[in-house]
Amino acid sequence: MRIAVKMWGIVLGALALAACGSDGNNGNAGTGGTGGTGGTGGAPTSTVTGVVLNDTGDMPIPVQGATVGVVGKSISATTNASGEFTLQNVPNGVVFFTTSAAGYWGMVDYYDVPGETDVGAVLYVVPDSVIAAFGDALGRTLQEGDGAVNITYEGAVGGETGTISASSDPPVTFNAAEAPVEQSAVIADMEGYADLIFSSVDPAEAPITATVTGAPGATVCEIDPAPGTTYPLFARSITVIYANCTPVP
Predict the structure, then answer these.
(1) Which one of 131, 151, 214, 225 has the minimum C-beta count within 10 Å?
(2) Based on the structure, what is the number of domains in the chain?
(3) pLDDT of 53 over the 60 cut
(4) Which helix (H) or strand (E) holds 154?
């Protein structure tokens, strides 16, 4: 089952406030998409509506002029003043969406169309200043030609690990103070969420795969199988991979 939680903004809230020094109003997702016309060969499609948010913490801000695309298809749209977009003729099934905007890093995330997009898709971008602050905190320089991968864990207790098939900087998790720390095992919050982030990933190594391992004697973890086994990766973007952890039987 897809984990409908976006952790990047939550764990980078402190960095975002330091780098951006502002907050805003929550954006509202667009209304539910309606069934579209058949695509090539009559394959079922849907109209997908939603919103792109500046992912800076607890108060995301709608982003005007962001581009939303569908991976593998010549389908894209630009957000309006409220951060809202509409995509026509999106193939039904699990679809990877991309976001991009001037002054931001984009994200690669997926939804099951139309089931999960009936109430609108919520997608994100991360300000350059937040990415820079993240790199500065680790003594790293994040190149615009590289991508990043964020494995997001649900049900973690701390100590879970993960790997990706591409080369990268050593993985990073977040401590209780929401500061990034170089560590291969995740630090989980009180609600059981955790992140493992791989930076400086070369998009030329895409598509990528990922593996996750539970905390010894405590949890068993698996990658969400919904999108299959491989994930796209693009320059100046963060690919989100979801993992679910359950207690050891």
Answers:
(1) 225
(2) 2
(3) yes
(4) strand 147-154
Q: What is the pTM of this model?
A: 0.86
DSSP 104-115: EEEEEEEEEETG
**DSSP 8-state class, residue 133:** H
Contact 210, 165 (CB under 8 A): yes
Q: pLDDT for 138-170, tens place per residue?
A: 999 999 999 999 999 999 999 999 999 999 999
Mean pLDDT for 215-236 is 96
Residue 59, domain extent: 8-34+43-128
The two beta strands, 121-127 and 45-54, are: parallel
Kind of pairing, strands 104-113 and 84-91?
unpaired
**Residue 210 and residue 231 in contact, taking contact as beta carbons nearer than 8 Å:** yes
Beta-strand pair 61-62/147-154: unpaired
Indicate whether 65 belongs to any domain. Answer: yes
Q: What is the sign of the dihedral through the CA atoms of 8, 10, 15 and 17?
A: positive
Amino acid letter at 47? T
Is residue 239 within 8 A of residue 232, CB to CB? The reply is yes
